[in-house]
Design goal:
247 residues; 2 domains; four-stranded antiparallel sheet; elongated
Length: 247
């Protein structure tokens, strides 16, 4: 059977160092004796020594490994490498597939999205935001919940980093910031680790770069004027608007 997860799920649900190490294991042929079972996959992954590894096909992150992390019920690079193998088979990963964006950055390219691309990007942002949800579960599920916040922010980082710079596209991250702020203030999001707050601050820095590349982007910041946000993240962007009006 085919895995129920795809490469994007592996990439965005895994921290960057672990993903990069897993890619290296896969590309260097360290995933050996690969076998497909009933709803699972197994292999011997060559690390500091050979490790027997198994993963579930129905859900990424469920599996076992003989390594130290695996014995602590933690997702390790060997399980991730096997997951990549289950998706890719013997195919090579493209540069895009290997690259994992860890933080939102300005693309530095000016331009607009087509009507179709704009609609698809909005849909993708909405889908990624769903990973950032309220939490009222038991403490034993808290780490799983934090992983969901990490995945949501990773997916969003990729989406906003791919945007060209224009007044049209600047509106997308501005609206995203307001949606995330609402989730933090009234949506029950437990951001104890600062994952979402850190992401918001990085997007603000990205938008400051937008303003330098295209001053028309500043118009989209006007939506933030007079807003009271959960930790004042909007202030640098509002200041840019005020400075523009004072010219």
């Amino acid at each position: 059977m085919k895995p129920s997860f795809d490469l994007d799920k592996i990439k965005f649900a895994t921290d960057q160092p672990t993903y990069e190490k897993a890619v290296d294991l896969y590309e260097s042929g360290k995933v050996t004796r690969f076998e497909e079972g009933i709803g699972s996959y197994s292999a011997v992954v060559l690390g500091s020594r050979p490790y027997r590894v198994s993963i579930e096909a129905r859900r990424f992150g469920l599996g076992n490994c003989e390594c130290y992390l695996g014995q602590q019920d933690m997702l390790c690079k060997h399980m991730v490498a096997l997951s990549i193998c289950a998706i890719m088979g013997d195919k090579k990963l493209t540069k895009e597939e290997k690259n994992r964006v860890s933080s939102p950055v300005c693309s530095g390219k000016r331009g607009e999205l087509s009507k179709n691309d704009l609609a698809q990007t909005k849909m993708a942002i909405t889908s990624a935001v769903k990973y950032i949800k309220g939490y009222n579960g038991p403490s034993r599920l808290w780490f799983s919940y934090q992983n969901s916040l990490d995945e949501g922010c990773a997916r969003l980082a990729k989406l906003v980093s791919d945007l060209p710079v224009s007044e049209q596209t600047a509106a997308l991250p501005v609206d995203l910031l307001l949606r995330l702020d609402k989730k933090l203030c009234a949506g029950g999001v437990d951001d104890s680790n600062g994952t979402v707050g850190g992401f918001i601050q990085e997007v603000v820095l990205m938008l400051q770069e937008y303003a330098k590349l295209d001053q028309k982007c500043i118009k989209t910041f006007e939506k933030l004027c007079g807003k009271e946000t959960c930790f004042g993240w909007e202030e640098p962007l509002v200041r840019i608007v005020d400075e523009g009006l004072g010219e």
